[in-house]
Design goal:
With 353 residues, the chain is of the alpha+beta class. The protein has helices at residues 2-16, 29-64, 84-99, 115-118, 139-151, 206-211, 215-230, 233-253, 261-267, 271-288, 298-306, 322-341; strands spanning 73-76, 79-82, 106-110, 126-130, 133-134, 159-166, 169-176, 178-181, 184-188, 195-197, 201-205. α7 (215-230) crosses α10 and α10 runs parallel beside α12.
Length: 353
C-alpha cells in the first residue's frame, strides 16, 4: 500500500510540473538514425585526424632522438595498420568507410618521412604478408602475423619484406627499417589537458591536442614525455617508493599504520627535478629532429594564462612553476645555440655516474 501511495504521489507530481510552452518538433526515426550514423562517422574521422597529427610529429622525434636513448631503441617501418578486430564492433563500420578496413589488414597511417613512405606504401594498402608470414583472420594465423610485426622492432635486418594488395594488384616491397626510441605514443580520448609517460608509453589526451594548437607546442609535449621515459623517471620513482616503504613497514611492526605515507613521500622526493630534467632533454630531442626550439617556451606562458595558479613557485607541487619552466627553457635554448656555434655535440649535459 505504501508503495502504491508513493507511486501515485509521484505521478501527481509529474502532472503538476511546469511544461514547455511550444509544440515539440517531431523527428522522423529513419532520418534520426541517418543523422546519428553521420555524426558517428564524423567522430571517428576526427579521432583519426588527431591520431595522424600525433603520429606525424612523434615519429620524427622518436627516430631523431634514437642516438640519445641507446637502451630503448627499436626498428620501425613508421606505419600503422589494423583489421576490423582492432576497432571492435562499435567502430568497424566507420573504419571501413575511412580506411577500407574489414577482414583484411589495412594500412591506416604512413609517416611522410619514414621507411614505409620511402618504399611507396600508402594508406588503404592491404598487407598480405610481412617477412614471409601471411595475414589470416583466424585467431592463430592472425596472432602469428601480429607477432611477425612486433618482431620487426628487434630484428638485425635493415629491411622488411612486405607484400601488399593495392586495388587488386599484388606487389612485394622492401621497406627500410629505421631506428627509433622504442616507445608507443597513444591518443587518450579524455578531454582533460594532460600528457604523461609510464616508462613504456607516451600518452597524450585529446584535451592536450586541442590546447597545443601549434605543432611546435605538441612536439614539446611529446619530447617532454619522451624525456621521462628515456631518463627512467618511473623506475627511479618506484625505487624511491620502495626505500620509503621500508619506514612504513618498520612503523607497522610497532603497530603504527602510516597508510604508505613514507613510501608516497619518497616517490615524490625528486618530482620537480624529474620534470625539470624532462624539460631540459626535450629541447635536445627537438633540435635533433630539426624542429624549432626558439619559441617553444611560450607554451608555458599560454599554460599560465589558462591555469594562473601554476605561475608561482610551490615546493609542495609535483611540477615546477610555469614561470621557472619558461626561463629554464630559454636558458637551454641559449645553451644549445652556444654548442651549435662552437661545433660541440648537441647532447644533454649529464652528471658523472
Amino acid at each position: 500500500m505504501i508503495r502504491i501511495l508513493l507511486l501515485s504521489c509521484f505521478f501527481l507530481l509529474l502532472v503538476g510540473c511546469a511544461a514547455p510552452s511550444t509544440v515539440r518538433v517531431q523527428v522522423d526515426d529513419e532520418a534520426m538514425a541517418g543523422e546519428a550514423a553521420l555524426q558517428k562517422q564524423l567522430a571517428f574521422d576526427k579521432q583519426s585526424e588527431y591520431s595522424n597529427r600525433l603520429n606525424n610529429i612523434s615519429s620524427v622525434i622518436l627516430r631523431s632522438a634514437a642516438p640519445m636513448c641507446p637502451e630503448d631503441q627499436g626498428k620501425t617501418m613508421s606505419i600503422d595498420a589494423a583489421d576490423k578486430k582492432m576497432f571492435g564492433k562499435e567502430w568497424e563500420k566507420e573504419a571501413n568507410v575511412r580506411f577500407g578496413v574489414g577482414d583484411q589488414f589495412v594500412i591506416t597511417w604512413v609517416s611522410p618521412t619514414g621507411g614505409g613512405a620511402e618504399a611507396g606504401l600508402q594508406v588503404g594498402d592491404s598487407i598480405l604478408a610481412v617477412n614471409g608470414t601471411d595475414y589470416g583472420s583466424a585467431k592463430k594465423e592472425r596472432n602469428q602475423f601480429l607477432n611477425s610485426l612486433r618482431a620487426i622492432t628487434e630484428t638485425t635486418s635493415d629491411f622488411a619484406t612486405v607484400i601488399v594488395d593495392r586495388s587488386g594488384e599484388k606487389r612485394s616491397v622492401s621497406v627500410p627499417l629505421k631506428q627509433q626510441c622504442n616507445f608507443d605514443v597513444r591518443l587518450d580520448p579524455s578531454d582533460i589537458v594532460n600528457a604523461y609517460a609510464d616508462g613504456k608509453n607516451i600518452i597524450i589526451t585529446r584535451g592536450m591536442m586541442r590546447f597545443a594548437t601549434k605543432d611546435e607546442q605538441l612536439a614539446l609535449v611529446i619530447a617532454h614525455e619522451l624525456g621521462h621515459n628515456v631518463m627512467n623517471h618511473m623506475d627511479k620513482k618506484m625505487t624511491n617508493y620502495a626505500l620509503g616503504s621500508i619506514l612504513d613497514i618498520a612503523a607497522a611492526a610497532y603497530g603504527v599504520n602510516t597508510q604508505g605515507l613514507f613510501g608516497s613521500a619518497a616517490a615524490q622526493t625528486y618530482s620537480q627535478d624529474f620534470e625539470a630534467e624532462a624539460d631540459y632533454v626535450s629541447l635536445y630531442y627537438l633540435k635533433a629532429a630539426n624542429l624549432p626550439v626558439e619559441s617553444v617556451a611560450n607554451f608555458w606562458r599560454e599554460m599560465a594564462a589558462e591555469h594562473p595558479g601554476s605561475i608561482k613557485s610551490n615546493h609542495a607541487a609535483s611540477h615546477p612553476a610555469t614561470s621557472e619552466r619558461f626561463l629554464a627553457i630559454e636558458k637551454t635554448v641559449a645553451e644549445i645555440r652556444l654548442k651549435e656555434d662552437s661545433g660541440q655535440n648537441l647532447t644533454p649535459n649529464l652528471l658523472p655516474k
